[in-house]
């Protein structure tokens, strides 16, 4: 089996499609992931100003109420500007607008009182409940963003947050390459119909299947580890220059926890479909559909959430506001289930191959 693993490993590295996938991983990760890091620095005001426009700060209590009033004022100004002046008196009470702008901030009026005032003096303005929900988050100022980041970095190191986001984006990119590459693990064998060769060779079915799978998976994993290793050095340098704590073990934990099990499952499932159908082609659309199932949110939900048998674990959200611990636990359980199913499919694949090489098909 060792020779099979070695042969398959080098066979993958001779594949031009595989090298195209490596280029895709390098460029994709660079353009997707590292703008998150380059856009801010605790020691650089200009970068902090840029980053402040990309981060949402959660509001509550009085801050949320005041921001709601600001949103309503912006909406009133928009309504006023959209209508000709001769019609605005019917739908827009200017005196009431000035009163609302000057008196409603820093008050304790209820949403019902605000609604009553809006309905009485303005037409076509949405109710305050809508604006209150909208005011849960706002784009942070430089000061708010700095405070927000400081609080987050006091809880965990920068590598904890960036490791999650790296695993999120880089894992997605790896899956795209895997969907194209893994179904062809047995393609040449199926196409050339080498079952007659196996009749005359002293090789067992599980040696053959395991060898091909391990060789293909090892080639992909070595690429992931190599690219991630280079980026680790890059991140250590940038973290030092920007004053962030970077823990290598913490960063690599999310790579091994999220990306590697998903790649293994993808390798097994796509190869199983190819062997079952005696062709690599059916596996590609099936895996693409699986990709969309795993990535898209559930109906009626915003953002990604763990679904039964989802193929990969995503860390959705802003850099410092990713999935909750509850979602992380659910994702961990799902990863274990997917791995168990993958090993089961692997042994079924061995059984299928043994039957076909012994009795034909």
Gap between N and C termini: 25 Å
Question: What's the total count of β strands?
Answer: 2
* Helix percent band: over 70%
Strand content: under 5%
What average pLDDT do the residues reach?
A: 76
Rg result: 28 Å
Spatial arrangement of strands, main beta sheet: 1-2
- Low-pLDDT parts are 195-200
Shape: elongated
Helix and strand string, N-terminal first?
HHHEHHHHHEHHHHHHHH
Sheet having the most strands: 2 strands, antiparallel
Structural class: mainly alpha
Instruction: Compute the number of helices.
Output: 16
Structure notes:
This protein is mainly α and 361 residues long. A two-stranded antiparallel ribbon has the order 1-2. It is built from 16 helices and two strands. The chain has helices at residues 2-13, 16-38, 45-52, 61-82, 85-91, 94-103, 111-121, 128-134, 142-155, 158-181, 187-192, 195-200, 205-242, 248-277, 283-295, 325-359, and strands at residues 56-58, 137-139. The two termini are 25 Å apart.
